[in-house]
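User: Sequence in, structure out. Go.
Assistant: Echoing your sequence, followed by the structure tokens.
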Amino acid sequence: MRLNSHPCLGWICLGCLVIASSVIARAEDPEPVDLVVYGGTSGGIAAAVQAQRMGKSVIVIEPGQRVGGLTTGGLGQTDIGNKAAIGGIAREFYEDIAARYQEPSAWKWQQRDEYRSGGQSKTAAGESAMWTFEPSVALSVYQSWIDRDRIRIDYGRRLDRSSVITTRSLPARIIAIRMETGETYRAKMFIDATYEGDLMAAAGVSYTVGRESNDQYGETLNGVQTAMARHHQLRPGIDPYVVPGNPDSGLLPHIDPQGPGTEGDADHRVQAYCFRMCLTDHPDNRIPFHKPEGYQPLWYELLLRNFEAGEDGVPWINSRMPNRKTDTNNRLGFSTDFIGQNYDYPEATYQQREKIIAQHRLYQQGLMWTLANHPRVPEHVRREVSRWGMCKDEFQEGNGWQDQLYIREARRMVGHYVMTQNNCQGRPVEDPVGLAAYTMDSHNQQRYVDSQGHVRNEGDVQVGGFPPYGISYRSLVPKPDEVSNLLVPVCLSASHIAFGSIRMEPVFMVLGQSAATAACQAIDDGVAIQNVDYSRLAKRLVQDNQVLAHVGAKPKPGIDAEALSGTVVDNRQAETKGNWVTSSSSSGRVGDDYLHDNASDSKDCVAIYHADLGQAGRYQVNLLWPVHPNRASNVSVTVLDVDGKRHTQRINQRDAKSGGKASLGVFEFAARGTVEIRNADADGYVIADAVQWVPVETDGVQ
């Protein structure tokens, strides 16, 4: 509700305070404070710590029973890209994680020297931070902060979304917020640190849900993206109907009959959610996967058909965490992402959200049991999945299953400034309050039936190749004529595809700290948060070890494929299978980026390059890639000639003398050529960058 119109502007006048007190004050309500943080996520805790350090009173309201959001909810493999972008309280967290694992008592299920982290979260030599961790250890760090700083956390209180009390005059000020349990919280400043943006929406701030069209902000990676859907894709040719070949039998569950939509157009769809499972293979700590009550066999028919169509990989990313645990995430065409089943979540009631979360849990529990037990799952997949299970010592109330669903994206504010793809790829902002450094990353958003009558995934986008970039302060605040004392560091103002780069837990911590700093400054200066003096804000952020500018070397431009002779196919045109990762950190690449396999233990990454040669003939085939000492010396590369004969050889991608180019030989082709790169049995990082076909009649190879 809103108060009747009152002529005050900017800071709350005495008259408004009197009115507010008469409306909402109760003896059992908390005393007014400087700052209320709604949402005890990682960003919310960082905000509270900063407010305390700046001498302000603060209360954190956590709707659930656990602080830390995804950081304590299973996402132990930190996604950031360039760790130099992370400073301030966020870096303190990862340094405290490292300190915990220096203690012998932290190692129960393995010895410290037995642990080797994997993927992008490897800690650099000599670095004081650690970027992989167990959920329980992350929670213990946050709890130690809460105890150290005497931060008040009110658990189990959900916002009454109809009772955000504001002034009627614009810009409005939030005077108080009421919980479903009846408590009313009053403050000078408010921060919405939830993944859903409930306070922001209830306060009347502009927001959006779903994907914008490319035209709206001059982007290329927003909206419907069937052409980009190469990663995490189903095998070709899978029948979508309950009874194969019979449309009258209906579509299999969770295939969208309205899809896919027009390429690049806006839609209501939201990228998929999942649980970031913490698994273990230690027999004394493992809870075997079980067949859940309410198991729906038909939900997994598409999974089984995908295996029968040729998929042979284990459909998860099982990243190693300490103590023989994992952070397990989505991988391949049918995995932990419950695609298309979250569209209603951002705007849903609490009761509806609970049902959606329960359905996601049922789906994922059923998926794990299916992978471990179903006879139509390949035997080697069943054997591998069966080694693992939930952890007895994590999320004990849920028998190893957490309450925190991975809300990759929900509401997004449409604020004073909207971050877009253009900012990610080089358009600077004039008021940075932190850096983002991750690939523009969207998970799949729908399953649909293509023009050939087969089921496909749509929505997966993974585009990197840019250095860390600044996030505008204005993207944390509402439009100037909306609300003047609310900051939104999580559901910030960004387009769908830009949010896909920003939406990382350490970045939310950075933005939470910056938001709290701005709130404290606004209180001290008696101004609206839109009128905070940025130069003073930036000075304080730097003083507090925040990183506002990328000072490292920028990636060198890649080789222009059009400048090379013959026909060159870059990795962006390749068909991929398995969990390739996009990177641009090495020079000597062709185009903006290249793919690597993370030196993965799962040796099922394949990149298939098809070249339209125009005419049949003999062609010199060359493999191109950026050289580095961590590359594999035995990369499997296969050329398919005009007769379909396969010519396989091993290429040394770490050999600096090669200059990042290897001749695969001269072969006869029809008007189309094919080369495959595989990471099977490789002894280092496998790179898939570019393949070049040059007619033998040309002189030399550029």
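User: And one key feature?
Assistant: The longest strand covers residues 184-192.
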